[in-house]
Amino acid sequence: MEEEIKRYLLDEGGLEVFVGGELRYGLGRIELVHRNQATSLWNAQIDLNQKDPVVDKPEFLLAHGFASSGQNELKGSLECVAVWDNASGRGGLKSLGLAWAPGTISPGLRWRIRGDGFWELA
């Protein structure tokens, strides 16, 4: 159901997002007015024909990336990543473990962009 709603909003051009804290004044209001199908992301080819987009051989990471293999090729900083876990009955921080920081050099690797915005090796 949620995917159908997202698809409808994007297809109909009705997506409106508010960013920031001063929503009463209209600051941070973003509205989708036009959308093109992407074929690249910062000089790397991107495949949008899969459940999650795949970025082919980006020069560097644009988000935190999880990689259990191929780590010898990566050059950057590792950071401990945690997210808020608001599932019923549980509250607080949940550790996702170590991830490569945005800006990490990533030659020759393919990355999948997960639904939560984090990247992982494809």
Strand content: 25-35%
For the termini, the CA-CA separation is 27 Å
Structural class, please?
mainly beta
Question: What's the story with the biggest beta sheet?
Answer: 6 strands, mixed
Whole-number average pLDDT?
77
Taking all Cα atoms into account, the compactness measure Rg is 17 Å
Rough outline: globular
Q: What is the helical fraction, as a range of percent?
A: under 10%
Query: How many E-type strands?
Result: 10
Low-confidence stretches: none
Q: Encode the helix/strand succession as letters.
A: HEEEEEEEEEE
Count of individual helical segments: 1
Strand order, main sheet: write it out.
3-4-5-9-10-6
Descriptive report:
Helices cover 9% and strands 32% of the residues. It has one helix spanning 2-12, and strands at 16-18, 29-31, 40-41, 44-47, 54-56, 65-66, 78-84, 93-100, 110-113, 119-121. A six-stranded mixed β-sheet has the order 3-4-5-9-10-6, with no helix packed on it. Strands 1-2 form a two-stranded antiparallel ribbon. Strand 7 (78-84) and strand 8 (93-100) form a beta hairpin. The model has no long low-confidence stretch (mean pLDDT 77).
